[in-house]
Automatic annotation (TrEMBL):
Residues 11-74 have a biased composition (Basic residues). Residues 1-10, 85-95 have a biased composition (Basic and acidic residues). The lineage of its organism: Eukaryota, Metazoa, Ecdysozoa, Arthropoda, Crustacea. This is Uncharacterized protein. It comes from the Eukaryota. Residues 1-95 are annotated as: Disordered.
Length: 95
């Protein structure tokens, strides 16, 4: 009977140890998963910010180009007007 109790005790201790180990591994796995998800989220956020910055830069360049084009067009029109005025002035002098 004493041997039987000893054997049962050993078995219980082993079972307890096994459960503890299982729990520890599960916790470790959970933490690892949590860390992985956090890293994934961080990378996604970084990518999103980078994309946002890229789009903003693209928009800024486009706007700059548009303004430059507008300015160039305006200058061209003014130049045409001046040439027209000059020609008109010459015509009046000739007549």
């Amino acid at each position: 009977m004493l041997v039987r109790n000893l054997w049962d005790e050993k078995k219980r201790k082993k079972e307890k140890k096994r459960k503890k180990e299982k729990k520890r591994k599960k916790e470790k796995k959970r933490k690892k998963e949590k860390k992985r998800k956090k890293e994934k989220k961080r990378k996604k956020e970084k990518k999103r910010k980078k994309e946002k910055k890229r789009k903003k830069e693209k928009k800024r360049k486009k706007e700059k180009k548009r303004k430059k084009e507008k300015k160039r067009k305006k200058e061209k029109e003014e130049e045409e007007e001046m040439k027209e005025e000059e020609t008109k002035g010459r015509r009046e002098k000739n007549e």
